Amino acid sequence: MITRIDHIGIACRDLDASIEFYRRAHGFEVVHSEVNEEQGVREAMLRINGTDDGAASYLQLLEPIRDDCAIAKYLEKHGEGVHHIAFGTADVVAATEAATSTGIRALYPAPRRGTSNSSINFLHPKDCHGVLTELVQAADPADAHH
Ligand code: CMX
Ligand code: CO
């Protein structure tokens, strides 16, 4: 079951410039940042609001760290902008199976590591009316990012 919008992923050419933009425009602050080598990104999470499942919703700002990663490819083709939406769930395997059982393709056969040791999978945008859709299960029982 999906219980929140976990984050909106935004492709950025310059992470620090985008962080500064959101700070100035809306007063959002970075609550977490990391490099995810597997995904090929440097990223920052900006917390927007708590959610009624006890977790929260974030903006995820993503800058590529190499030319062959998904974000670099997206920037080259489309420029900066909204890259994906991520739904939060307490069980990413079950949420993925619920989607794939309707004929949607998952990108990974098993969950991979996402922000703050979360478990993630993606649903193909061509099977989701043009929206790259991520499914996220937080690492800790409190179901929150650190
Ligand atoms: N949203 C919507 N459509 C997208 C898209 C996106 N983010 N990325 C690609 N597409 C579309 C393209 O426009 C293209 O459509 P057309 O054929 O009509 O032109 C089609 O999908 C294929 O695009 P592509 O440029 O050839 O890209 P790939 O197939 O190589 O990769 C995808 C697309 C989704 C498989 C790849 O981006 C991927 O594996 N994503 C999952 C991993 C990821 O996004 N990591 C970064 C975020 C990490 C995180 O959130 O923590
Ligand atoms: Co994401």
Which structural class fits the helix and strand makeup?
A: alpha+beta
Low-confidence stretches: none
CATH class: Alpha Beta
Mean pLDDT: 96
Order of strands in the sheet with most strands: 2-3-4-1-5-8-7-6
Q: Could you say which overall geometry the principal axes of the C-alpha atoms support?
A: globular
> Could you say what the CATH architecture is?
Roll
Termini distance? 22 Å
The hetero molecules present are: carboxymethyldethia coenzyme *A, cobalt (II) ion
What is the string of SSEs from the N terminus onward? EHEEEHEHEEE
Helix proportion of residues, in percent?
A: 10-25%
Structural Rg: 15 Å
What count of domains describes the coordinates?
1
Largest sheet: 8 strands, mixed
Question: How many distinct helices?
Answer: 3
**Strand elements, count:** 8
- The CATH topology is 2,3-Dihydroxybiphenyl 1,2-Dioxygenase, domain 1
Q: β content, as a range? A: 35-45%
Task: Tell me what you see in this structure.
By secondary structure, the protein is α+β, with helices and mostly antiparallel strands. The chain has a single domain, classed as 2,3-Dihydroxybiphenyl 1,2-Dioxygenase, domain 1 (Roll), CATH 3.10.180. Helices cover 21% and strands 39% of the residues. The site of cobalt (II) ion has 6 residues, from strand 1 and strand 5. Cobalt (II) ion binds next to strand 1 and strand 5.
Features:
eight-stranded mixed β-sheet; 2,3-Dihydroxybiphenyl 1,2-Dioxygenase, domain 1; 3 helices; alpha+beta; binds carboxymethyldethia coenzyme *A; 8 strands; binds cobalt (II) ion; 146 residues
